[in-house]
Design brief:
With about 80 residues, the chain is mainly β. It has one domain. The protein is about 0% helix and about 60% strand. Strands 4-3-2-1-6-5 form a six-stranded mixed beta sheet, with no helix packed on it. Strand 5 and strand 6 form a beta hairpin. The termini are far apart.
């Protein structure tokens, strides 16, 4: 059984010239890292939309509120593109 450790990720996103600071749940499975974009709970089950990150681009933060910052490009799904 894999043990998941959940942390928080802070990432600055620029979309159409607008900058936004996102804070998202971050999960680790072994050496792999994922940001949780969306979560739906159906009874006892959780359905997660996760995006895999390059763990080499994660930077550990020492301040309160978030545990990591991501230095790579985070491409998030846009509902209007579906």
């Amino acid at each position: 059984m894999r043990v998941k450790m959940q942390k928080r990720l802070r990432h600055f996103v620029v979309d159409n010239g607008q900058g936004t600071l996102l804070e998202l749940p971050l999960e680790f499975e072994g050496r792999r890292a994922f940001v949780v974009w969306d979560l739906v709970v159906l009874g006892k089950h959780e359905i997660k939309a996760r995006i895999e990150l390059d763990p080499k681009l994660l930077e550990r933060l020492s301040g309160p509120g978030c545990d990591y910052s991501y230095r790579g490009q985070l491409v998030l799904p846009r509902p209007q593109d579906n």
